[in-house]
Amino acid sequence: MKKSQIILVVVVFVAAAALYSLPRVVVDNADDGEALEQEDMASADSVAQAHSTSIPDSERGTVSTLITNLEKAESKEKITIFADSIASFYVSSGMYDSAAYYLGQSADRYPDMESLEKAGNAFYEAFGFAMDEDKVAHLAGQTRDYLNRVLEKQPDRLDLKTKVAMTHVSSTNPMQGIMMLREVLEEDPQNEQALFNMGILSMQSGQYKRAVERFEELIGYHPENIQGQFYLGVSYFEAKQKNKAKKQLQLVKDMTDDPMIISSVDNYLGQL
Predict the structure, then answer these.
(1) What is the value of pTM for the model shown?
(2) Which domains does the chain have, with CATH numbers?
(3) Distance in angstroms (rounded) separating the CA atoms of residues 227 and 106
(4) d(CA 267, CA 254)
(5) What is the pLDDT of residues 32-67, one digit of tens each?
């Protein structure tokens, strides 16, 4: 897949943005079974200051007040309210790492299952948007730290296990993540996110025929998954199955009115 095409796909489906920078590993071959740590903030204010240029002027005072209140709060209820409110402001400004930071602060002070999961999910979202290699590694580590603590108590949470698996794929031991995804699929062969991620990883490693198999399986169980439908078309395209690619991409075009998706589909159709 050409770099320009990858960028276009990422614009359409930003949730998969980090996956194309992952190590190239063999995903589905049965024979292959086998940093920068973000500087600690001296205080919550330093995080706000670091991103202040991205927060609308009309909201900076509110965010600053919420941060001060969070630092002074002692009860779980107040800490949760303030952290959630701060995170909301940062998410609306597209600063997912800052949102995760404050939710992590809340979880660190009162580490119940709900707070840990919320922080882990926030760090995973930030991980999905990160492009810098060192930042990806840091956010992946934070995701694992929080979500693994939930999985210790709730090992049947395959949704969280899938997220942890994807953070391992971006590490120095990517096969650990692949094996975790396989374990998820052994337990739940129809798992939507695991099938999707295995398909994406097959694409990333150039195994387009394998990617076709994964995405065909995915949409067989989950036909409403527009990302899976789209990537199946792209996989057909890359596997030189032009007739199938054209038919599949046209199907995707008929499934949505989203101009970004349609533009990406037209880009591929124009090459067929």
Answers:
(1) 0.79
(2) 3-31+44-206 (1.25.40.10)
(3) 33
(4) 15
(5) 444 333 333 334 444 444 444 466 767 788 889 999
Q: Show the tokens assigned to 163.
A: 């997220």
Alpha helix stretches (DSSP H) within the chain: 3-12, 44-50, 57-72, 76-92, 96-109, 113-129, 133-153, 158-169, 174-187, 192-204, 208-221, 226-238, 242-255, 259-269
Query: What is the token pair recorded at 128?
Result: 């999905």
Question: Would you call 82 exposed, middle or buried from its count of C-beta atoms within 10 A (0-12, 13-18, 19+)?
Answer: buried
Burial 32-59 (b: 16+ CB within 10 A, else e): eeeeeeeeeeeebeebbeebeeebeeee
- Helices 192-204, 226-238: crossing angle, 10 deg rounding: 30
Scan for tokens 């240029």, then name that residue.
Answer: 53
Instruction: Specify whether the CB–CB gap between 107 and 116 falls below 8 A.
Output: yes
| One-letter amino acid of 246 | K
- Quick one: tokens of 53? 């240029």
Can you read off the two tokens belonging to residue 266? 């037209």
Measured CA to CA, the distance from residue 145 to residue 161 in angstroms comes to 12
- Share of residues in the chain with pLDDT > 70 (%): 79
What mean pLDDT do residues 212-237 have?
Answer: 97
pLDDT tens digit sequence for 87-138 = 999 999 899 999 999 999 999 999 999 999 999 999 999 999 988 889 999 9
Does the pLDDT value for residue 153 go beyond 90?
A: yes
Beta-carbon contacts of 90 under 8 Å, excluding residues fewer than 6 positions away, are 51, 55, 96, 98, 99, 102
